[in-house]
From TrEMBL:
Membrane topology recorded in Swiss-Prot or TrEMBL: Multi-pass membrane protein
Homology family: Belongs to the EamA transporter family.
Domain EamA, chain residue ranges per copy: 3-135
Keywords of this entry: Membrane, Transmembrane, Transmembrane helix
Organism (species): Sphingobium cloacae
Protein name: Permease
GO cellular component entries: membrane
Amino acid sequence: MLAFLASLLFVLIWSTGFIVARAVMPHGSPELVLAVRLTLVTLLLGAAALHARQALPRGKRLALHLAAGAMLHGVYLTLSWWAVDHGMPAGIMALLGALQPLMVAAASVLFLREHLPARAWAGMGIAIMGVGCVLMPAIERTGAGSIALWPAVAALLSIMGMAMGTLIQRGAIAGDGIAISGAVQNAGGALVAVAAALLMGEAHWDNSAMLWLGLGWSVLGLSAAGLSLLVWLVRHQRPTRMSMLLLLVPPLAAVEAWLIFGERLGPVQLTGFALALGGVLLGRARARQRADAVAEPA
């Protein structure tokens, strides 16, 4: 029950990332906003870790935490926001995000020796088709023919970064506390975002209420809560099972955009939402006897 509630809460929180990005981008340069966001999260989780007396990882574990954060927070967020800000349609960016569970699944089979039943592959395929249906109107409006090379490359690299960061969570760092793990990993992400902000040389920040509201939710909701839940789920479930949850994010984001911005939500998108949900449930299902006989590693 706890894992189910954590999964549900994670998907609901993570889906708001698309909404926040759309609301914040006109008011501040993406790299600067992310640098401020990740730095604030580092301080917040660092204070929580200090209060909980969680020891700072050292040596190889510290390096792995920084690498995981650089990939999961820095590379993924910085490159995906940069791609959208430089012409990558948000719908296509979200559809590319559906490749992340496939990358994690393939890497888990190759490197972690994880066995995936045919049901998991079938569920993933159905869910990806559902995501495509949900995003089809947005893709038709924007089209893919006008996308420049570098935003497309940045988008793909961002998805690869998230997949790599997810896989690192299951290694030697899995035993460290969530708060100290989050603090160190957000520090790794902040280093990437700060470097990107310095390289871009753009410092747009209009100090509007919308910018501060978006930043506040990004810090408290998306990073402090959402990313902590992501790390917890990866540690308590197999990486592939957790990554499948990300396939529900674009459909939920489409519903939120319909509620907040009045964007169109037609029968094709509703069908896609049902396919995505059904595919994720199928892919994450486990045989009863296997679940009873073998407990997944925490």
